[in-house]
Specification:
The protein has 9 helices and 6 strands, in the order βααββαααβααββαα. It has 182 residues and is an alpha+beta fold. The protein has 2 domains: 77 residues, K Homology domain, type 1 (Ribosomal Protein S8, Chain: A, domain 1, 2-Layer Sandwich); 99 residues, Ribosomal Protein S8, Chain: A, domain 1 (2-Layer Sandwich). Strands 1-3-2 form a 3-stranded antiparallel beta sheet, with helices on one face. It has a 3-stranded antiparallel beta sheet with strand order 4-6-5, with helices on both faces. β2 and β3 form a beta hairpin. α2 packs antiparallel against α3, α7 runs parallel beside α9 and α8 runs antiparallel to α9.
Length: 182
């Protein structure tokens, strides 16, 4: 059987297990995968069952929880074929010295920018360690990634907000076109 080992932060191991093992059981039941947890070393082993897509989704849920998402949000990856998980490694864009400043720009004063991204583009965003992660449908995650990259590159919040409003309108128009065809 195919399996993958995922190293996660020690403080996130309990979150993946969940109260009375519920999160782990839910992932296993919905994906057909087996999950083994090495508490001491923070290594999660996901072993594939019969469903290849389930294996990929189980891996994404574990990674999403490891990157700071609440399990309820991460488990949404399992519920919908169009829900995706994507991560931006900030260390690929900025120096360690600039990391906190860039994370602060993404979060914004009192969390307002992150919340604005989530509400405008209907996604979930987590800023954890050196990663910014996004969960949502493919088109919205793609737009959120662009917005986040603009913030990382130093664009003003107002510029990014205008960009997101434009993307939101485009996405809504495409979905209306899709429904008028049906």
């Amino acid at each position: 059987m195919e399996s993958i080992e995922i190293k996660i932060p020690q403080e996130r191991v309990g979150v993946i297990i969940g109260k009375e093992g519920r999160v782990k059981k839910t992932i296993e039941e919905k994906t057909g995968c087996r999950i083994a947890i090495d508490n001491r070393n923070g290594i999660i082993t996901v072993t594939r069952g019969d469903d290849a897509v389930g294996f990929l989704k189980a891996k994404d849920v574990v990674n999403a929880i490891a990157k700071g998402f609440n399990p309820d949000v991460a488990l949404k990856i399992l519920d919908d074929d169009f829900t995706v998980f994507e991560t931006i490694d900030l260390s690929s864009f900025v120096s360690q010295k600039s990391m906190e400043r860039v994370k602060g720009r993404i979060i914004g004063k009192e969390g307002k920018m992150r919340k604005h991204i989530e509400e405008t583009l209907n996604v979930h965003v987590s800023v954890y360690d050196k990663f910014v992660s996004i969960i949502g449908n493919f088109e919205n995650v793609s737009a959120a990634r662009e917005a986040l990259e603009m913030l990382i590159d130093g664009a003003q919040h107002s510029t990014v907000q205008k960009f997101m409003e434009k993307k939101k309108r485009e996405i809504e128009m495409r979905s209306m076109d899709w429904y008028s065809i049906s």
